Protein 1
Amino acid sequence: MNKENLIASLKSILKDNQILLGEDVRSRFSHIWKTDEPLQALAVTFPKNTKEVSEIVSLCNKYDQKIIIHGGLTNLVGGTETNIDELVISLEKMNSIEEIDPQSKTITTQSGVIIENLINAAADKDLLLPLNFGAKGSAQIGGAVSANAGGLRVFRYGMTRQMVLGIEAVLPDGKIISSLKKNNSED
């Protein structure tokens, strides 16, 4: 009964194109090396912003629902493997680069932005985002931060977390916390 209530609640906060159920779930996979193995999960959700992630996580907390986060699915540790009773929160629609500030040399971005897109956007502003590894065309920045990815330039520029100035996160109860600093000063 709880699963039906959870699904009904998810449908009330998400649009039809933001949730996969039933056989549609099997059109997905859990890793880029396992594309021939259909995903096993209760449902797949596609939030577009932190507020929607918070609402999904809150509901999952209320219904004691297990969650698996999917990003670029490039991890090497099995962190995206799922079971039929788990809910997937895919961050692929959280792919907005919110701000590139050439003066402070910072980028504010959602967690689902592809690393290569960030590298190119930084280059367009004459900046260097030194992340560079084989999966940069499909890996997402949220996964690189959470895994503290290294890459080809790690000895010169350090690990990913050394490049992070702030983060916004959703706690297991759905509460949003943030260490992001907004620069509202005028030139």
Protein 2
Amino acid sequence: MSGASIDALDLAALLCSRVCHDLISPVGAIVNGLEVLEEAKDEETKTFALDLIKKSSSTASAKLQFCRIAFGAAGSAGAQIDVGDAEKIARGFLEDGKTKIAWNLPRLLLPKNRVKLLLNMLLIAGQAIPRGGELKVDPLGEGESMGFKVSATGTNAKVPPSAPLLAGDAGEGLDAHRIQPFYAHLLAQACGLNAGVALEGDVVVVSASA
């Protein structure tokens, strides 16, 4: 594995910036909706504003729940997370009218860093199909030493430009837009796994295994 590293304070700052970036859009939409509602003088405008607030609140909540596990402490050192809970969080955040998830993992408790790694792998795989498609999640191995394979299938699926960061190649350096796949690399290291992204035919495969 790569010996690339980052100062702990820089890592924390960049991850915080990434989370803030993800939340700015739905929170801003909620604020806009409240402003429209405050000035609304007809029922149609009020209905529009309330719909915007409702949808944006749901989006913000889904993103917060996902980020809490994918980037947060997620319990004490040595804690375990239910894979079924991770599935629910992933579906709430990533599934929509364009993208669906095929989840083929057994329901069990796994060390938190493995679950955090899986959620971060799903983020990278999702970037491979910007027009939507399917994210298929399969186990590699079994039990607490389980690795993962996430296959992204969709129109013009391609390996994301930031993919080398998953293998630890910081390349041009790190910023808030590039920190997430590098953080996934650090999680893979902590789990004793090798992670990477490859194009297999017309499918982009994000994997982590021993």
Protein 3
Amino acid sequence: MTTRLRARLSASALEANAVLAVGRAGEHAVADLRRDAWGHGLAFVSPLLVASGVRAARVDDADRATVTAAGLTATDAAPTLDSGLLLGLPGSGGDPVMGVSSVIVATKALRAGEGVSYGYTHRAAADTRVALVAGGYGQGIVRGIGNAVSVEVAGEQRPIVGRVAMDVFVVDVGSLSVAAGDEVVLFGAGLVRDGLDEWTATTGLTAAEIVCAIGLHAPREVVA
């Protein structure tokens, strides 16, 4: 299936965070831009860092020419710029740069006792409705969030139920009036602005690992 999972990258958040991060690291800061700037995109991050006064970055060997063209010196020196702050990861004090959203593919009734997804790890305690949402572990949505975290749907936080599949996951939407095509926010904006905290606590992965995995697999778009 064609997923409509999207990683939206906030240019204004990155710019504000860069001011703070560079201010703390000093004029000779070395940025860590490995793995395509932690999944945020070298083409997006590099020019703004240059404008903020950063002159050097640690990158993967294949990306040396890319950052050089952007005006950065590729180096093997240890990074000194706080990447968590730069990207607004939980606990850093910065604003989230990446916000992840998707859309509902379909909705259906789920009767009491009926199971959801592989192995029926979730069974409905009462009659309800569920939404099939685009995006799964094939796009970097880690399987550990199944039956554990909430997303925003129609202005409410609703739980993910059942196991995350390769291209989809399921949300219990209860009595909400939703339909195919409606937006679902996973984290980084709205009610789940700080949702990565829940993801890290549930999966044991770091916020950096999660945003990197999604950013390297899902389509990215830059917003103001």
Protein 4
Amino acid sequence: MSFVRPVLSLAAAAAALAAIPAAACSVVAGYRPPTNLELAAESDAIVLGEVVGGVDPGVTEGEIAVHPLAAIKGLMPGQDFPLRGMMLGGGDPSDPLELAAPHPEALAGACIRRTFRHGATVLFFLDRRGGEWVPAGGPFSRWAEDVPDQDAPWVQLARFYARIAPLDGEQRTALIEAERDALLARADEPAAQAIAAELEHALAPPRPATVAEAPEPDDGFYKPGDVTAVQRALDAMRADRDD
């Protein structure tokens, strides 16, 4: 089955690679980003939140403050919470119909998205570590994507994946197929078609990868390393989509 949206156009990939600074995060050979289903299953919490504060643009280290709006998975944080290693800044928001590739910032620098607009509504995939919330998923994951509202395609998909993740393989596959088919029937709705394409991808077994050997966050940042990590990740994502 052909996909409605490619993981990343060649033009977008070229632009992302051109924007990469001299040092980027380093990942081991064979690393691949988690699939969206894996990301939802392995995160400790999925929280829809509004960015309500943080450090000024240009500051290298700091944090943003997030006001929780809804808990998609896990417990709802009781109050505004910080995310260290992040900053306020500009840049374009996530494409609401892009459900495969991460925000372009994840393809440069620290290999995760770290910059957010003040007032942005973002779906965060989080882990709990050392008493703090930290990004889940590792390099090149869709751990933090802008969404227009609580009914955005990415929020719908996260809810669905979080609900089916605990089920056994056969049950999960049956529910994904049923949901995909129902969405494909809504041929005149771009959002439904984008979600259906991602569900089709979820039905394919993920490529083997040495995910456990990816670098761990260091106070919210990833250590600098080989710039070819980005190219390897792009190649892996393309291979997943082409299989």
